[in-house]
Structure to design on (632 residues):
């Protein structure tokens, strides 16, 4: 196992280098003069020269890349052109907000998706099966930004049930410790704030969860159908075991393995989807941070935001691969 | 009952076998799936809408009638009007042309480049395979929308650049698919025979390997059109795709956001159009997969 983990970590090195190179290109490959594009048409010669110097654009590209890698290794993600603060110092609150949202979305997607898949397979070809699978198909076809807007309109504006933007009630702000507000309100024992924070989470989490939920439901159903036809499940049923236990204890144990891979993959994809959800719900996460940076042509923030999400995405995939080999001993890595 | 001569029986069997070719078999299987047929009808409808729709809509896409701004749906304006008094129905119909154009052309671009790279990697192997496969790994290490944002950040926001970005992010998916197919096909006896009779690599690649690798590409391509349409709309929504006044569905949704309270119809119809088109391609793609390549089902 250690050999496998070591091998996967070694394989990661060229991928991480390639990722940093693509992100490095974001400024350097801009057609024409990057300083002109970043600062706009009105920029003075001095301002452009100063920006070129600060970004090291006057050096040959390979020197720039080596310097960029050196900066990354020391945790220097550059400086925001808008706020003038270092990106690494600004990043954590945004990242924590995105983690909280992605985690809640994934919890929703797994609980609903897995159970819908199980019940659909259990009662194959029933009205529930058809209904759930049609919903799942609509779910995978749904643009999440539209779903988010519809959610705001129906539950926020028409029914006035849930807040439509932000993370908290501005009149009752959370005192941040970890910047994951659910955790922070629990630490402070402020359960009135916890309820408020959870209400703010519901709509964006549902919007973000829809696609993974649909994919997990479809995957669970097909995996369960395969397992339910196997001899050991038939034997358990022939012995007169309660059907609920046959499904949830015996069948699910084997059927869940491919579903776990999908769950891991979707967790990474949620980070990509967060940019759209956070934009709609004004959720101050890393997606929103990148979106705002695009508007201000704040290239160091765009670069570092994309790099951080891609890095987390790669790490989640690595952890899923390693966990997979623990969960399914039939898999032999060589 | 008359007896049939043995030769006649063989003839009948051979004729029956010939009548059920692989494509006909696939079509039979496709037809059996109601969901796939519904998908095909939806796709056909939107393609027709994209081609002829703009000639029949009541108003021009950019006709501004400010006294009619933010009118709810009515007999005159089926989908209502937007903040410039433009007819949303006309703009949604024109938007079909843009979305399908981006969807198809970006996927064709991805298929062409991905197939070339996949074939070269799979057929020649060794260092060239390692390099191409690592490039694919690196590209797939990014969530697709982020890679698209990175590409558009470099090229600048426009519909054309969004199309290029979407084509680029889908290249590794097709490249990997073709590569794995080529790896299995190149072990087949007919490829060994072709090499033995001195056939050139280019002819083997394009006459034998490529046509035999296309089935999964057709399936994946149909599903990729669906995701390309969503990605183009997402880029438009983020302000990185089509620019005003182009009636691109994602851009229309972005513009509608501020009228959510007073004029929700400005948001409902473009979103519905995206969802229905994508649903159509997904249903059709699922049906094609089951008909052409059942092994891909899970």
């Amino acid at each position: 196992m250690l050999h496998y983990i070591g091998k996967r970590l070694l394989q990661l090195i060229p991928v991480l280098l390639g990722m940093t190179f693509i992100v490095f290109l974001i400024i350097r490959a801009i057609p024409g003069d990057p300083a002109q594009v970043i600062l706009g048409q009105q920029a003075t010669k001095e301002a452009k020269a100063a920006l070129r110097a600060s970004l090291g654009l006057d050096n040959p590209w390979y020197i720039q890349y080596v310097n960029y890698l050196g900066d990354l290794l020391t945790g220097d993600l550059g400086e925001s052109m808008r706020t003038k603060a270092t990106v690494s110092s600004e990043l954590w609150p945004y990242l924590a907000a995105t983690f909280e949202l992605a985690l809640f979305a994934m919890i929703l997607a797994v609980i609903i998706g897995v159970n819908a898949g199980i019940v659909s397979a259990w009662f194959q070809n029933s009205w529930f099966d058809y209904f759930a699978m049609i919903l799942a198909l609509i779910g995978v076809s749904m643009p999440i930004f539209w779903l988010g807007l519809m959610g705001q309109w129906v539950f926020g504006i028409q029914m006035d049930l849930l807040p439509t933007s932000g993370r908290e009630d501005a009149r009752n702000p959370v005192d941040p410790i970890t910047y994951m507000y659910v955790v922070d309100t629990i630490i402070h024992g402020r359960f009135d704030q916890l309820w408020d924070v959870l209400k703010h989470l519901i709509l964006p989490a549902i919007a973000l969860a829809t696609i993974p939920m649909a994919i997990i439901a479809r995957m669970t159903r097909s995996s369960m159908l395969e397992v339910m036809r196997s001899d050991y499940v038939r034997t358990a049923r022939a012995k007169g075991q309660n059907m609920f236990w046959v499904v949830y204890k015996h069948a699910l144990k084997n059927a869940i393995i491919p579903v776990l891979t999908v769950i891991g993959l979707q967790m990474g994809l949620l980070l990509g989807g967060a940019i759209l959800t956070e934009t709609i719900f004004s959720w101050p996460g890393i997606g929103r941070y990148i979106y705002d940076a695009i508007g201000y042509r704040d290239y160091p923030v765009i670069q570092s935001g994309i790099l951080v999400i891609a890095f987390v995405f790669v790490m989640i995939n690595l952890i899923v691969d390693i966990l997979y080999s623990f969960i399914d001993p039939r898999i032999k890595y060589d | 009952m008359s007896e049939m001569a043995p030769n006649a029986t063989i003839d009948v069997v051979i004729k029956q076998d010939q009548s059920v070719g692989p494509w006909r078999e696939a079509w039979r299987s496709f037809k059996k799936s109601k969901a796939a047929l519904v998908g095909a009808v939806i796709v056909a409808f939107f393609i027709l809408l994209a081609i002829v729709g703009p000639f029949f809509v009541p108003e021009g896409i950019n006709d501004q009638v400010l006294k009619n701004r933010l009118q709810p749906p009515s007999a005159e304006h089926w989908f209502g009007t937007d903040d410039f008094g433009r007819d949303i129905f006309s703009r949604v119909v024109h938007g079909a042309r843009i979305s399908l154009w981006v969807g198809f052309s970006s996927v064709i671009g991805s298929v062409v480049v991905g197939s070339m790279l996949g074939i070269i990697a799979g057929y020649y192997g060794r260092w060239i395979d390692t390099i191409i496969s690592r490039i694919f790994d690196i590209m797939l290490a990014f969530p697709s929308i982020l890679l698209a944002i990175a590409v558009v950040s470099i090229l600048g926001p426009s519909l054309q650049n969004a199309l290029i970005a979407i084509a680029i992010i889908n290249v590794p998916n097709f490249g990997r698919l073709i590569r794995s197919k080529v790896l299995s096909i190149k072990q087949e006896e007919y490829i060994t025979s072709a090499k033995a009779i001195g056939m050139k690599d280019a002819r083997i690649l394009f006459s034998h390997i490529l046509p035999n690798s296309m089935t999964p590409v057709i399936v994946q391509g149909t599903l990729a059109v669906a995701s390309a349409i969503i990605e183009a709309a997402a880029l438009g929504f983020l302000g990185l795709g089509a620019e005003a006044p182009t009636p691109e569905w994602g851009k229309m949704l972005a513009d509608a956001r501020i009228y959510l309270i007073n004029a929700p119809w400005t948001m409902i119809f473009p979103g519905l159009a995206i969802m229905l088109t994508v649903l159509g391609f997904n249903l059709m793609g699922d049906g094609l997969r089951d008909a052409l390549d059942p092994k891909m089902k899970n």
About this structure: The domain at 88-327 of chain A is CATH 1.10.3720.10 (MetI-like fold). The longest helix of chain A spans residues 191-228.
